[in-house]
Write a structure and sequence with these properties.
By secondary structure, the chain is of the alpha/beta class. It contains 13 helices and twelve strands. The radius of gyration is 21 Å and the shape is globular. It binds pyridoxal-5'-phosphate (PLP).
Length: 390
Amino acid sequence: MRIAQRIKKIPPYLFAEIDKKKEAAIEKGVDIINLGIGDPDQPTPAHIIDQLTKSVRDPKTHDYPPYEGTKGFRSAIASWYLKRFQVNLNPEKEVISLIGSKEGIAHVFLAFIDPGDVSLIPDPAYPVYKTGTLFANGEPYTMPLLEENGFLPDLDSIDEDIAKKAKLMFLNYPNNPTGAIANKDYFKKVVNFARKNDLLICHDFAYSELAYGGYQAPSFLEIEGAKDVCLEFHSLSKTYNMTGWRIGFAVGSQEAISALSIIKTNVDSGIFKAIQEAGITALTGPQDHIPELINMYTQRRDVVVNGLNQLGWNIEVPKATFYIWVPTPKNMNAIDFSNYVLEKTGIILTPGIGYGKYGEGYVRIALTVDVPRLKEAIGRLKKAGITYNG
Ligand SMILES: Cc1ncc(COP(=O)(O)O)c(C=O)c1O
């Protein structure tokens, strides 16, 4: 069998080693606390499930859905955008449904990147931006996310020739894995950069609603003129605890939506209509579970940040996402530290190197386990004498 070169280009799965160690620990009967999972532990709100069970019984939902999303779902997205960001969208031309935002993120590269074309990709980052580029036989150019720059790419340090050559840039704020946020002034600079270099900005906004203390993450499309140069990717996964349902959407540039739509019509056949009806309920129905969710993650975040800071860390309280980006102790790289912590305490952390080379020296903690388990985790670290010495 002769497997395609593009498969061989995909970097090895860096979490494989830790997965093996996890399995071995479970077999030995270790009580694992898994802080590695970026998947909400709470159920989908009941009113959304009720809508699905109703819709699924309606035979009108059983046929092929429209490729780009039902009119109802796309209108619900446009209404949500207007209410949440005061951004007007044409539901027919500037909105497309996705089978989870991951699907759209992976496919947008096929719509924009020809062999040898450059994409500007943050590092550390959600791995699909890089693999999406590689699947399209493009060249990913790394934009390091450094703590001293607030984990924002330094646009001035991007090589001018590369910038001119690049077709597309990916950004993601609130950010996975660093928990960083970006303000509108930064987005304005990015829009100018995109205009100057004629490139598409893809903004991954999966964590748009997971923000603390009244902070509201801005949409890229709030910036004047951004709609001409930007696609924004959204997910119902984290806001409505719907990761398994596979529903998301992209909004923005009509030209980019139409290009993505050409790829998608040839690859998939849309989202099950009953799920789209539940999606309409999610976006237009009661939203009171969101402040409850934020409250829950805030309590968890504070247990972890305060707990680690008592053990010598000096972690700033993140303003958004359910991740904490934690520097590893001196002389320990991300994999060694994750392995050491697993061995000594049964706690699983995600090594930052899994998100790119600039993730080295960090581990990611996901706040997807409850407060008693997080307290137990901090207690175990303390008992094992694991502290920060950086
Ligand atoms: C930054 C980021 N983008 C996109 C996604 C994909 O979300 P989904 O495909 O469930 O919409 C994730 C999932 O963890 C993520 O962390």
